[in-house]
Amino acid sequence: MYDLSPPITEQLAVWPGDTAMSRELLLKIDSGDSVNLSTLRATVHLGSHADGINHYAAGEDGIGEQPLEHFIGPCQVVHVKASKGERYGIDSLPPDFEMLAPRILLCSGTYPDPNIFNEDFAAPDPSLIDHLAQHGMITIGVDTPSVDLCQCKELLSHNACLRNEVRILETLQLQKVPAGYYELIALPLKLMGFDGSPVRAILRSLPGQPGG
Hints:
Glucose Oxidase, domain 1; 25% strand
C-alpha cells in the first residue's frame, strides 16, 4: 500500500495567498478538560486534494456532488519526462506506454517537497489531457499543486479537463511509487457546493498486475 498524501501540519505549503492550515484547541485534557477538542482552519485545496468543477468553471457542481467512481477504482501511475516550469505532452510518456486504467496519475518529479511551494513545477499540456481522455481517462492525478502552470491564468489544462469531463486530483506524492497498475482510493469529503476537498489518497497493489 502506498500513501500519496503529505502530512497535514502547519508547515504544509499552500498556494500563495491561500489559507494555510492552523489548529485551535478549544478544550485540553492537560488543562483539566474531559476531552481534547480542535478547530481546523485551512483551504479546502490542502495537501492531496480533489477539485470541484466549480473551482474553475462558473455554474458547475461542487466537490460534494461529484460521482465517487472518479476517485476510487483501477488506476495507473505513469512517470513522465518533464522539465520544471514547462508543460509536458504526449511525447513525455514512456515509449512503451499502454493505457491500462481510466484513472491516470502522472509523476513529473517537479514538486519534491510539499512543505516548500516552488512555483516552477511542470504541468500536463492540454493536448495530453485530450489524448488520454479520448482513450478513456476519467480522472487525472498530478504530483504538483495544479494541472496548470503556476502563472497560467487561462487555466488551459483545467479547461481541457472540463470539456472532457475529467476530474482532477492534485499534490499527490508519487515519486516513490513504481509505475504500474493499482487500485486508487482518494475519496473527497462530501462538502456540498465547495470548490475542493482534501483527500487521503492511497494506492493498493493488485496481485498479478504491473506494480503488484
